[in-house]
Specification:
heterodimer, A: about 110 residues, mainly beta, seven-stranded mixed β-sheet, four-stranded antiparallel β-sheet, about 0% helix, globular, B: about 110 residues, six-stranded mixed β-sheet, five-stranded antiparallel β-sheet, about 55% strand
Chain lengths: ~110, ~110
């Protein structure tokens, strides 16, 4: 089945550790996105990538890093510099740029203690 | 950071009722507006992508309108069914994506 997978579903880490969230898509989409959701807030864009080897910061990129070495994969690293890393993280992809509908993965809930 | 506001925050309707929600966004730097439906324990799914002022789109019992000059979009659900229960998100696309906090709809059988 075509779609977007994120793993793991739940992730627990100790404060001060970096952690990488996986996002893979087999939809042959060019663009991929990472969002974060906190209680009472809308989805906020962390990073997006329109093509391989290129990515742009969203409004809340501080403390995060990404790579886009393959079309299918867009991993997100939550670094120890991220002050409030506990959140629900959603990955998405779209066939083209900003005007195209996005297809979302199931999300990863990260808890840092 | 740009504000995209959705109202109401939540509502409960009886099965068979029609309902509508609002998404308000800045009227400048508009590129597109997306509507998504997010059911509990599932991923958000796209309903509509709207780009032109005056756009009206329909999918079954759900329709949406767009006014880019005044900065709002309405989502309508005709004859609500329990399976329509979900959170409905709008996203304003200008230089980046900005999502509203959603309208949570519960349809009571």
């Amino acid at each position: 089945d075509g779609g977007i997978t994120q793993s793991p579903k739940y992730l627990f880490r100790k404060e001060g550790q970096n952690v990488t969230l996986s996002c893979e898509q087999n939809l042959n989409h060019d663009a991929m996105y990472w969002y974060r959701q906190d209680p009472g807030q809308g989805l906020r864009l962390i990073y997006y990538s329109q093509i391989v080897n290129d990515f742009q910061k969203g409004d809340i990129a501080e403390g995060y890093s990404v790579s886009r070495e393959k079309k299918e994969s867009f991993p997100l690293t939550v670094t120890s510099a991220q002050k409030n890393p506990t959140a629900f993280y959603l990955c998405a992809s779209s066939a083209g740029g900003m005007g195209y509908e996005q297809y979302f993965g199931p999300g990863t809930r990260l808890t840092v203690t | 950071i740009l504000n995209v506001e959705q109202s109401p925050q939540s509502l409960h309707v009886q099965e068979g009722d029609s309902t509508n929600f609002t998404c308000s966004f800045p009227s400048s730097n508009f590129y597109a507006l997306h509507w998504y439906r997010w059911e509990t324990a599932k991923s958000p799914e796209a309903l509509f992508v709207m780009t032109l002022n005056g756009d009206e789109k329909k999918k079954g019992r759900i329709s949406a309108t767009l006014n880019t000059k005044e900065g709002y979009s309405y989502l309508y659900i005709k004859g609500s069914q329990p399976e329509d229960s979900a959170t409905y998100l709008c996203a304003f696309i200008g230089n980046q994506f900005y999502f509203g906090t959603g309208t949570s709809l519960t349809v009571i059988p």
